[in-house]
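In these records, each integer encodes one residue's backbone shape. Here is one protein:

___
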Amino acid sequence: QVQLVESGGGLVQAGGSLSLSCTASGRTFSRDIMGWFRQAPGKEREFVGRIRWSGDWDYYSDSVKGRFTISKDKAENTVHLQMNRLKPEDTAVYFCATSGNWGATMPSQYDYWGQGTQVTVSS
């Protein structure tokens, strides 16, 4: 079992920045990928990006590439999502999740999920 807890959501104006964190506990060694997803009201859950615990390799969706950055703190078992130049369309509940699939971009490829944290970007 892996437990994930997100934190850091909130309200920010367009153009601003926000940082989310996801702290993992439990059998974290069994899952090498930590991904971030988001879900806006009435929309499907959308892949944002992912990072490997075991290497310096990350990957982002086109909608956030160049604005969002994922980093990790292995000592704290925590992954961060730094979001810059935020837009109103970035408003969503953000989730972190784990996968054993290095190429995973679909929610179905992730098996453990956090509870989500709300990010609201005002125009």
About this structure: The CA atoms of residues 52 and 79 lie 10 Å apart. The chain has a mean pLDDT of 94.
